[in-house]
């Protein structure tokens, strides 16, 4: 039987640790139990004799010498415990006297990773039975890696409505492929009715509403719950309400309560584990898939992706929801259900379930594990490391204290250019790892066995890597091939998931929060990248072309303003082929390694602008704009400048984009600048003058300084609004200072501020290349406003 792991748990029993895996299968949900397991961690064999005096009367453990070594080449022993809680207690005691390795690996994960099982699993044999629930259970089966086929999950979009304090429940809405329901607290009537394509359940109390919802959930039996802040708000608030009312929070497939944990770095962030189900938050998944929006509010994202939006929007929505609950419960039901529908459609449009499934299948991490680059790396790496003969280090073991440098950025040449080509190294850091055999295990082998030069590949800071036993390059090769297969088959979610995983490997090795951190290993990646970018710049110089900018894995090459634009694409492809040949030959001769570096001709800018750092003569970094040519088609592309930054007003963003476009297309600029300035002072652009900024700290923490968005937030608070850390504040600059947008009616806006701070700065750099600036254009026509 094939299955996909939805949730994983462990229980200490009198006969050992019982592992519990809830699976989605084609036949329905199944609970797999693996009894009589042990938890294991590792110590040096030389410290085994200290265990009896240190542990005293502790029971339920045993120790065994193993054919493994520590990262410092000490022979290793395994300490095995019949209870995970006992293992944690014993490891804590031992840490005071000796090094302890891998004590933080939980039994459910270790069981899977050592069998190379990710999320897809094959179940063989075992004892099938039922414990009175609807879900079949199997005990002590054989588990094998599955075939990674994409599951057909049952999904439900969930949203709740409450009063502004989230203390009183108004309604719960759900939306699925065959489900449209709203459970409404309505003391005046009961029963249910079908209307407008959904079923409205009128419940006499909050308790009745919750029980009706849990009964429906049990019958519909979804695998996945989705929503917008569904974990941090909806499910957490439901938990609090259930506790207040004494209702069993029966989210689990077996009726069990979910369990919660808080983020150690952010106490306001919570994670939920539901037996047999998964909760996926749309905001977190979109960010993990590298979607970028000016705002991740449901209204903004839905408008951007679907062209549709919420039935209520803007400030004051909380009061309106309360009013609807009191006066128009049917309209509140429509609003509640519409939010569910929007989330459902966003998940479909972005294929987020397929993306999360592919990422889970590639990494072994649970579906709802957001981020988790270090955990994903360890899941694949640890079992292979053990077979190489090593245990993994602990976080903080590395005593090397110098920092690994970041990506290399070439000095930019500011100005306005014609015919600029961009060349990108495809997945540069993974390519470097493959090419130069960079790997923690290979580093230890080279060091411990003192291998001669011909058996290693040299790194930086005296690092060297054994040629014949590296783990990480092989993992990347496997992922690379799988990504190529995914591209050929058109599986975009899988391709994107693999790309994110591959590109995370350097970040893992370069972070001191990872157990494998060693700056000698990480620097052997980044410094090689520096060398490659510098050598590539020299190569282009030798070809007679000028590199005007370069950043980590890309170079911007100026062919010359008089170069034939119709030949640029052909020349770009030819240069890329020649450069790839150059690297093949150079690395074979210098290091005796095949080159996996692959440079691609990426973009042709017929016009390209690199600004100066404001107030300086040097060129900026990671900020540029240009006119991209794609055959006969062209478009303005802007990176890092104000037009693509949400902390500038819509006026500044639109103004910059239009002026840049006019310059790039050789169209007149002066009259447009004058027209916009005149419209600004005439009050015709007021809707574009709103600033939008997030509160990064609680409002009371802003003591020494009071920036404009904080001033506006305090005015909102004084007006009775509930203002919290993380809230977005919309404000305008009036003649009386910063004021909330919602409280600015009747106030005169400070148009001179917007002219000086929003119009002039965003275009002066480009206008300077034409021999003028914003103020000169305005002064010639109007004088000072």
TrEMBL record:
Its EC number is 2.7.7.7. GO terms for biological process: DNA replication proofreading; SOS response. PROSITE patterns: DNA_POLYMERASE_B. Residues 382-759 form the DNA-directed DNA polymerase family B multifunctional domain. The keyword Amino-acid biosynthesis does not apply. It catalyses: DNA(n) + a 2'-deoxyribonucleoside 5'-triphosphate = DNA(n+1) + diphosphate. This is DNA polymerase. The lineage of its organism: Bacteria, Pseudomonadati, Pseudomonadota, Gammaproteobacteria, Alteromonadales.
């Amino acid at each position: 039987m094939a299955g996909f792991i939805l949730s994983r748990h462990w229980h200490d029993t009198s006969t050992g640790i019982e592992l519990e895996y809830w699976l989605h299968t084609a036949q329905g949900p199944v609970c797999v139990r693996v009894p009589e397991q042990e938890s294991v961690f590792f110590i040096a064999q030389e410290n085994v004799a200290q265990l009896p005096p240190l542990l005293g009367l502790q029971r339920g453990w045993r120790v065994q010498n193993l054919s493994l070594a520590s990262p410092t080449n000490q022979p290793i022993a395994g300490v095995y415990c019949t209870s995970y809680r006992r293992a944690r207690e014993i490891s804590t005691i031992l840490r005071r006297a000796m090094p302890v390795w891998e004590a933080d690996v939980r039994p459910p994960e270790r069981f899977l990773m050592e069998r190379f099982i990710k999320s897809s699993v094959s179940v063989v044999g075992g004892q099938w039975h039922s414990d009175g629930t609807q879900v079949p259970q199997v005990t002590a089966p054989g588990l094998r890696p599955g075939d990674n086929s994409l599951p057909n999950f049952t999904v439900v979009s969930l949203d709740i409505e409450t009063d502004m304090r989230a203390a009183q429940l108004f309604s719960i809405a759900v939306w699925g492929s065959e489900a449209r329901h709203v459970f409404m607290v309505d003391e005046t009537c009961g029963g249910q009715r079908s209307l407008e394509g959904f079923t409205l359940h009128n419940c006499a109390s909050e308790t009745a509403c919750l029980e009706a919802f849990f009964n429906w959930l049990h019958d519909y039996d979804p695998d996945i719950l989705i929503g917008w802040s569904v974990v941090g708000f909806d499910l957490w608030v439901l938990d609090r309400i259930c506790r207040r009312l004494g209702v069993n929070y029966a989210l689990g497939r077996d009726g069990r309560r979910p369990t919660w944990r808080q983020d150690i770095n952010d106490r306001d962030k919570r994670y939920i584990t539901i037996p047999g189900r998964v909760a996926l938050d749309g905001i977190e998944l979109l960010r993990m898939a590298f979607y970028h929006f000016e705002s991740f509010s449901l209204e903004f994202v839905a408008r951007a992706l679907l062209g549709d939006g919420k039935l209520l929007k803007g400030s004051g929505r909380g009061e309106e929801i309360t009013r609807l609950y009191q006066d128009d419960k049917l309209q509140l039901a429509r609003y509640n259900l519409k939010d569910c529908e929007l989330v459902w459609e966003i998940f479909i449009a972005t294929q987020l379930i397929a993306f999360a499934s592919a990422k889970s299948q590639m990494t072994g991490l649970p579906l709802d594990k957001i981020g988790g680059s270090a955990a994903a790396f360890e899941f694949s790496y640890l079992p292979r490391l053990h077979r190489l003969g090593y245990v993994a280090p602990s976080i903080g073991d590395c005593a090397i204290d110098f920092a690994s440098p970041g990506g290399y950025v070439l000095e930019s040449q500011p100005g306005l250019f014609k015919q600029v080509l961009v060349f990108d190294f495809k997945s540069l850091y993974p390519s470097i790892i493959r090419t130069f055999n960079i790997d923690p295990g290979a580093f230890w082998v080279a060091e411990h066995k003192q291998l001669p030069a011909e058996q290693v590949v040299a790194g930086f800071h005296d690092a060297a890597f054994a040629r014949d036993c590296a783990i990480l390059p092989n993992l990347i090769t496997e992922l690379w091939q799988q990504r190529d297969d995914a591209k050929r088959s058109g599986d975009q979610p899988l391709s994107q998931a693999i790309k994110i995983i591959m590109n995370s490997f350097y970040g893992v090795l370069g972070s001191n929060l990872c157990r494998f951190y060693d700056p000698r290993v990480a620097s052997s990646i980044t410094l090689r990248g520096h060398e490659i970018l510098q050598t590539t710049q020299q190569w282009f110089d030798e070809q007679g072309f000028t590199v005007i900018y370069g950043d980590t894995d890309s170079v911007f090459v100026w062919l010359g303003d008089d170069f034939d634009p119709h030949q640029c694409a052909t020349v770009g492809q030819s240069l890329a082929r020649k450069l790839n040949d150059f690297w093949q030959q150079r690395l074979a001769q210098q290091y005796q390694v095949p080159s996996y570096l692959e440079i691609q001709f990426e973009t042709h800018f017929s016009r390209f602008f690199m600004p100066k750092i404001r107030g300086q003569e040097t060129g900026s970094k990671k900020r540029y704009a240009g006119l991209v040519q794609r055959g006969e088609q062209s478009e303005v592309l802007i990176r890092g400048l104000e037009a693509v930054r949400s902390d500038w007003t819509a006026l500044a963003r639109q103004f910059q984009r239009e002026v840049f476009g006019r310059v790039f297309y050789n169209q007149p600029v002066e009259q447009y600048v004058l027209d916009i300035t005149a419209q600004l002072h005439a009050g015709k652009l007021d809707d574009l003058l709103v600033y939008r900024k997030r509160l990064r700290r609680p409002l009371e923490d802003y003591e020494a300084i009071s920036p404009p968005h904080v001033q506006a937030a305090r005015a909102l608070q004084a007006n009775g609004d509930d203002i919290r850390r993380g809230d977005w504040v919309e404000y305008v600059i009036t003649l009386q200072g910063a004021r909330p947008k919602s409280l600015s009616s009747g106030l005169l806006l400070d148009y001179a501020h917007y002219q000086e701070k929003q119009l002039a700065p965003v275009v002066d750099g480009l206008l300077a290349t034409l021999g003028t600036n914003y103020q000169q254009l305005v002064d010639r026509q109007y004088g000072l406003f």
